[in-house]
Amino acid sequence: MLKAVLPIAALLIYSPLLWSQSIISYFEGEVTVKRNSREIEADFGLDLEEGDLVLTGPSALAILELDHGRTLKMRENSSVTLEDLSPRTSVELKSGSVFAKVDRLLNGDFNVRTESVVAGVRGTQFFMAYGQMIDAKADLWLCVNEGRVEVSIPETGDSVLVNEGEGIIIPGSIQLTPPEAYDWTEDLNWNTNPSSGDVRDETDLSGAYSDLLDQDYF
Description:
The chain is mainly beta. The protein is built from 1 helix and 18 strands.
């Protein structure tokens, strides 16, 4: 497995406050960046630009340090488009799953969205993932580790606040369900700093549906 890490000196100053640009700060496995008609292989410290599509392959992961104290940790088989890297940061989760973290000392908005759902940060750390398919549209899972996240469906105007320790499922990406505590979220690896230990998350998201066996969420 291909694996790249930051030099020790860089790890000692690993902090979103210190980045003046958006980069790939850490990766394992096959990670590529599509920029216009180019396909760029990942390297530590690789500069990222607005419009870039970042992809992780099987058994791969990537940590992106973005401007304004935003961090994304992408799990395997995931893709994210960097739509806006200004203080009003916006990224689109195209497939797979991502951990998002925002430095609480810095200002500005941060949204992670899909084709039909927007998760707006009112806290500091959350996880968002595609689940099973329903009528050609995937469920979405979201859970919050710190703070609060407002989840909304712009097409319908529906929204809900998900608090720290809570999760939500969005069946077919079109219906908001009441936030609640889900057992499976306790297994997530929220670490985004390689110098602090393992950053790989191997939570089985298919097991998340076991929490719903006694619920009619359609």
